[in-house]
Design a protein that fits this description.
With 473 residues, the chain is an alpha+beta fold. The protein has three domains: 155 residues, Beta-Lactamase; 93 residues, Signal transduction histidine kinase, dimerisation/phosphotransfer (DHp) domain (Helix Hairpins, Orthogonal Bundle), CATH 1.10.287; 147 residues, Histidine kinase-like ATPase, C-terminal domain (Heat Shock Protein 90, 2-Layer Sandwich), CATH 3.30.565. 52% of the residues lie in helices and 15% in strands. It contains twelve helices and twelve strands. The strands form three sheets. It has a five-stranded antiparallel β-sheet. β4 and β5 form a beta hairpin. α1 runs antiparallel to α5, α8 packs across α12 and α9 packs parallel to α10. The radius of gyration is 55 Å and the shape is rod-shaped. The protein starts with a helix and ends in a 5-residue tail after the last strand.
Length: 473
């Protein structure tokens, strides 16, 4: 930047000086003609150039300004004479000056910055003053170069020194300016970064609510938004961990209770069988064994549910989807649960609407869903109640509904009904650990669908889920 500034400064300084010098000396050629050609002619009687006159002119001019060079031109621009040129060789080509800049200079009366040819250095252009003259039937131009070789020699000797001084000064100023701008730029650019670091440290120290305000307006908006999203995710995970910890405590309490009861019952009956082995008849022994068997089945079911849910939670189960008839599965489940429903005097019906298409799903997992929903329905449906298994369909999906006439579920409880270890508060004796519906939801999610519940207190409940219809195409 410093070097560029120096070069530009030198260039325009030189142009400024040249334009100033040209405008200041614009009328020098006219003054020369008026003063010198009033009593003398630039040409002798034989038509040759009046060399003594031009010698006096050059002497007077150089006494005032050593950089000035005077040339006599004819109407074609040919140099007829100049003291600074060597005219001794008659075979040397006549030097020529382009008249276009001269005519433009004269027409504008020296008001414009115009460069003309340098006869001593062809190809170079210099500032000049020019005027037209007519004397004794002769006419031509007086062409005065205002920055001749003497000026160029002095200028060349000074320019390196001036360049060094200007360069050093400009470089120092540029460095100071660059350091100042750089420091301010770094300060402004890192302002938002410092804010992010501040909030990250606050979060690291335990302030999980520390967030960056208006992250989209930050210069580092992507980083700020990402931090806020990350902090939200971590906070959510922390809350989930806390919730899981609470549920874990509840699970331990529930499992301890649910395992202790059947274990205590089995232990009691086994001890009774051991103590009263000789006094018990065969019928009493079989009754005790049935009770022990019932509690073993209950324990087996609890352990199976825990194992099944843990695999679903860890995503170790992947559905093996295939087309199958959902109606056959519904009727099969109905036949299995008819005996259980009959024990509670519950009416169990299957209602298939229309010509139901095949579904594309894992038949084993879907059967598990229906069984869990049926277990839940039979558990909460009172005696002389009604359970309906309904199958309906549209062009894309097959809908399965399990409807019961149980006590229903309040709106507040419906929000948590599918959470693990949750059990609704009812008058029914609480059994299990609340994993049945959580397993249902996990399986349904594995199939990319969802399950919903419609229920009101004392009006029963309807659990509804859908499966994609199988298309041959």
């Amino acid at each position: 930047m410093g070097i560029t500034y120096v070069l530009i400064s030198l260039y325009f300084s030189n142009k400024f000086y040249e334009e100033t010098a040209q405008k200041l000396n614009a009328n020098v050629a006219n003054h020369l003609i008026e003063e010198k050609f009033q009593n003398a002619s630039p040409f002798l009687e034989d038509g040759s150039v009046n060399k003594p006159l031009f010698g006096d002119i050059m002497h007077d001019m150089m006494a005032v300004n050593r950089g000035i060079e005077v040339y006599l031109l004819d109407m074609n621009g040919d140099v007829l004479y100049s003291v600074v040129l060597d005219h001794s060789n008659p075979n040397e080509p006549v030097k020529k000056v382009d008249l276009a800049p001269i005519n433009e200079f004269i027409s504008n009366k020296g008001g414009l910055y115009i460069l003309g040819n340098d006869p001593r250095n062809p190809g170079e252009e210099k500032i000049f003053s020019a005027a037209h003259f007519q004397k004794d039937g002769q006419e031509g131009f007086i062409y005065i170069v205002l920055a001749g070789e003497a000026y160029q020699a002095v200028n060349s000797s000074l320019i390196s020194s001036y360049f060094m001084k200007l360069g050093v000064g400009a470089s120092i100023l540029t460095m100071i300016f660059a350091i100042l701008i750089g420091w301010l730029s770094v300060w402004f650019l890192t302002k938002n970064l410092r804010s992010i670091i501040y909030h990250v440290n606050r979060f690291r120290e335990g302030d999980t609510n520390s967030r960056i305000a208006n992250p989209e307006k930050s210069d580092l908006s992507t980083l700020a938004i990402t931090y806020n999203q990350m902090a939200d995710t971590i906070s959510q995970n922390i809350e989930e961990i806390k919730s899981v910890d609470v549920l874990r405590r509840e699970l331990i309490a529930n499992v301890s209770h649910d395992l202790r009861t059947p274990l205590a019952i089995m232990q009691g009956y086994i001890e009774t069988l051991q103590i009263k082995k000789e006094s018990l008849n065969e019928e009493e022994e079989m009754e005790y064994i049935r009770i022990i068997e019932k509690n073993i089945k209950q324990l087996t079911k609890l352990v199976s549910q825990l194992f099944e849910y843990s695999k679903l939670e860890a995503k170790q189960i992947k559905p093996q989807k295939e087309p199958f008839a959902i109606t056959d599965l519904i009727y099969d489940v109905q036949s299995k649960y008819k005996v259980i429903a009959k024990e509670k005097n519950i009416q169990l019906d299957a209602n298939v609407i229309g010509n139901t298409p095949l579904v594309f799903a894992d038949i084993g997992l879907v059967e598990r869903v229906i069984q869990n929903l049926m277990d839940n329905a039979i558990k909460f449906t009172p005696e002389n109640g009604q359970i309906d298994m309904i199958v309906d369909h549209d062009n894309e999906n097959v809908t399965i509904k399990i409807k019961d006439s149980g006590p229903g579920i309040s709106e507040d409880e419906q929000k948590f009904i599918f959470e693990r270890f949750r059990q609704t508060e009812t008058k029914e004796k609480k059994t299990g650990i609340g994993l049945g519906l959580a397993i249902v939801k996990k399986i349904i999610e594995l199939h990319g669908t969802n399950i919903k519940i419609s229920s009101e207190p004392n009006k029963g409940s309807i659990f509804e889920f859908y499966l994609p219809a199988y298309s041959v195409s």
